[in-house]
Predict the 3D structure of the following.
Amino acid sequence: MPIFRGAGVAIVTPMKDNYEVDYEALEQNINYQIENGTDCIVITGTTGESATLTEQEHVDVIRAAVEFTKHRIPVVAGTGSNCTRTAIELSKEADAIGVDGVLVVTPYYNKATQKGLVAHYTAIANAIKAPLIIYNVPSRTGCNVLPATVAELTKNVDNIVGIKDATGNLAQAAEMMHLCDGNLELYSGEDGQVLPLLSIGGIGVISVLSNVAPRQTHDMVMEYLEGDRKKAMQIQLDAVPLVNALFSEVNPIPVKAAMEMLGMKAGALRAPLTEMEDAHKAVLKQELINFGLLKN
């Protein structure tokens, strides 16, 4: 059985004005997501500013997400690192807390060969019982997990079960699904390309958009999976301008700004991220209005 089908929210980590994690706001945001149809909470990912959390904060935020979710929907924790040893330790901590899965980004900056990626993911997966989702986002990491590598990992390591594909390369994703022969849980990592990945066997999305539009993101995926492809396509196409605005600056700068516009608590950004530029913010506000999330 998959960890989840549908829309998983790559949820933000709300911050107070003094840059401490705002756990009260995190609980409110998780409840809002669940009440509006989100199928999985994905905590401490890129959108959750994991790169600027201390290791203790990282673990504490995962623990809080599990506590606040109360087993109503699955929780997947981002536990990746460019250091295999650190990724193992974070994954073991998350596993002990009781997450339903871990999301492990490819090593960044120091990168890795394909052989190195096999060793990296195998070592992490062998250290835990929880299922592992590979996160492939070469635009951020400079490291691309090739289809044959994914197939080798899913074939030889029982708890490597899925991938969040944010390559933007549909041909690569199709080759990967072919080589894995149905033995892979494929999640879109691109809000603008959810339906194309569903069309080749995907079962969901790990979404930034869902922070502000959880119901629409859930419906887009489930309408497609349940057969109403025309309705799903309309949601996908209608969302394109808003998705573009949400990525007009480095994630999660725009989505935190959007949440604040909608009266949700997202709070400050930790450096080196900075507040959204006014011109981009004006476009984002208009797209929130156009998508029906904000009144004019």
